[in-house]
Amino acid sequence: MEKISLKIKIIHFRKFASEKLVKLIIKNHSQVKKFSFSNYVYFRSESSVFDLIKENDIEVVIRNENPGRPNLLETIRL
Fold first, then answer.
1. In terms of Cα–Cα distance, which of 26, 16, 29 is closest to 54?
2. Residue 28 to residues 5, 16, 48, 67, 70: CA-CA distances in angstroms?
3. How far is CA 21 from CA 52, 68, 76, in A?
4. Residue 6 pLDDT class (50, 70, 90 cuts)
5. How far apart are CA 10 and CA 22, in angstroms?
6. Could you give the strand order of the β-sheet that contains 59-63, starting from the edge strand earlier in sequence?
7. Is the dihedral angle over the CA atoms 48, 58, 11, 28 positive or is it negative?
8. Beta bridge partners of 37
9. What count of other Cβ atoms lies within 10 Å of the Cβ of residue 21?
């Protein structure tokens, strides 16, 4: 967690977001004002994650874009 710069205001969750991870970020990085979630993470996260975010007055953004980089299996053509 100490690798997150104090200049960072937005955190994007691309693969997963747990309540424990969100708590750590909120506790140690009060400068973060917005959490961004991929559709994948948004639909697979527990509601407790979003409750915690709401309790701390942090904005939530859901990105509906296609994933930026395909994984290896998506690029292999058989």
1. 26
2. 11, 19, 19, 28, 32
3. 11, 23, 33
4. confident
5. 13
6. 10-13, 34-38, 59-63
7. negative
8. 13, 62
9. 14
Q: What is the pLDDT of residues 8-45, one digit of tens each?
A: 999 999 888 999 999 999 999 999 999 999 999 999 99
Q: pTM for this structure?
A: 0.75
What phi and psi values does residue 64 have, to the nearest 5 degrees? -95, 15
User: In the numeric block, which tokens belong to residue 69?
Assistant: 């980089």
Residue written as token pair 């991929």: 38
Judge contact between 37 and 13, C-beta under 8 A. Answer: yes
Identify the DSSP state of 66: P
